[in-house]
Amino acid sequence: MDARKFSIAIGCIVVATLLVIAVGLMPGARTLSAGAVLQALFSPDGKIESILVWTLRLPRSLAAATAGAGLAVSGYLLQALTRNPLADPGITGVTAGAIAPIVTCFVFLPWVSGHYYPLVGLAGGLAAASVTFWVARGGNSHPLHLALGGVSVSLFLGAITIYVLLFAGPQSTALLFWLAGGFAGRTWGHLVQMLPWVLVGVSGAFFLHRVIAMFALSDHSAAAMGVQLTLWKPVLLLLGICPVAGVAPVAGPVAFVGLAAPHMAKLLRPRGTAWEIGLTAAIGALIVTAADLVARTAAIPKELPVGIVTALIGGPLFVYLIQRGRLDFKGEGA
User: Fold this and answer.
1) From residue 34, how far is each of 29, 191, 289 by CA, in Å?
2) How far apart are CA 61 and CA 227, in angstroms?
3) pLDDT tens, 60-104?
4) I need a surface site. Which of 57, 85, 121, 166 has the fewest CB within 10 A?
5) What confidence tens digit (pLDDT) does each residue in 28-59 have?
6) CA 332 to each of CA 16, 132, 155, 266: distance values in angstroms, whole numbers, following the listed order
7) Rounded Cα distance, 200 and 99, in Å
8) Is 254 helix (H, G, I), strand (E, B) or coil?
9) Do the beta carbons of residue 237 and residue 72 sit within 8 Å?
């Protein structure tokens, strides 16, 4: 596919995401007709239809699309950095590292403002990723050792999170639902809180696409071509964790997006890292937006956690990629 075809492919995915968002404005505990949605969108009058569209459904869908794009690019950056097709924010321990300190602050430090939670998640994600990479070095950085190290860190931090939940009291139910991942009740304020962190990760990935392309080579080859590994590895790791730090306080952990979206983008065989990043972001946005629509309409008036829906999508896809031999291990890790 040439550049024009890739542009069309990304455009089609974006249009599909917008269509899902538009369709998602209609169903709910109170179903709206297409005419009522259009009236509320273009001539809001403060009535119940306008409130449902502008206050409840539209910001939620936009938050889901933003989170999906950010988590997908986060997974892409971690896979590129480690040259490991198994890497994603969940498997490398980054998500658990962000979630555990946020839950701890919520339960034991309630005076800490939620506006600081992304910084708390960023610090926790960096710490967890550092431990995971340290464990992987003990196994000579083989991709499977990185995955095993990440799973071990995730299980350890998950146990701490569950222990902290024992002290949450009546808030434990809400925390458990948040830990399953979801966008219920998310507003424009949540979108604004999350957006800068996602933009940093996504725009940074585009800006450094040439450096990221070099990481497809071995460390020795990349260094020989002038890549300063001691500089760019921490930078790419930070860019990969930023979207998770922004999304986690708003939506909790959303599984499999960071793992599935980069592989789905690569199935289209894009020519160039920038196209891979663009396709990955677009596919991630579509996956999470569609999953959110399914989550809130499959059992009306009740709601499923989005993390469950994305896991149902990502699990079979991951098995398919393994069976078809699509997971190509490069051998040398981060």
Assistant:
1) 16, 25, 19
2) 39
3) 999 999 999 999 999 999 998 888 887 889 888 999 999 999 999
4) 166
5) 888 899 999 999 998 888 889 999 999 999 99
6) 37, 15, 25, 20
7) 20
8) coil
9) no
The owner of tokens 């492919």 is 9
Residues 6+ apart with CB under 8 A from 107: 164, 165, 167, 168, 171, 175
| CA–CA gap between residue 105 and residue 108 (Å, rounded) | 5
- Give the pLDDT of residue 328: 53
Alpha helix ranges (H) inside the chain: 3-24, 34-42, 48-51, 58-82, 94-108, 117-138, 143-165, 172-179, 188-207, 209-214, 219-224, 229-251, 257-267, 273-297, 306-323
Domains, the chain? 3-92+180-232+240-323 (1.10.3470.10)
Average pLDDT, the chain: 87
Is the distance from CB of 218 to CB of 91 less than 8 angstroms? Answer: no
Burial class (CB in 10 A: 0-12, 13-18, 19+), 241: buried
**C-alpha–C-alpha distance, residues 249 and 198, integer Å:** 13
Closest to 124 (Cα-Cα) out of 88, 153, 84, 91: 153
pTM: 0.91
Placement of tokens 């891979």 in the chain: 276
Closest C-alpha among 270, 258, 285, 209 to residue 7: 270
Structural contact between residues 122 and 245, judged by C-beta atoms closer than 8 angstroms: yes
Q: Quick check: 332 pLDDT over 60? A: no
**Residue holding tokens 């922004």?**
246
Mean pLDDT of 316-327: 67
User: Is residue 74 within 8 Å of 37, Cβ to Cβ?
Assistant: no
Q: Which two tokens stand for residue 18?
A: 């917008």
Classify burial at 255, counting beta carbons within 10 Å of its beta carbon; exposed 0-12, middle 13-18, buried 19 or more. buried
The CA distance from 200 to 59, in Å, is 20
> Nearest-CA neighbor of 199 among 129, 246, 249?
246
* Paired tokens of 124: 């926790």
Q: What is the pLDDT of residues 183-208, one digit of tens each?
A: 988 999 999 999 999 999 999 999 99
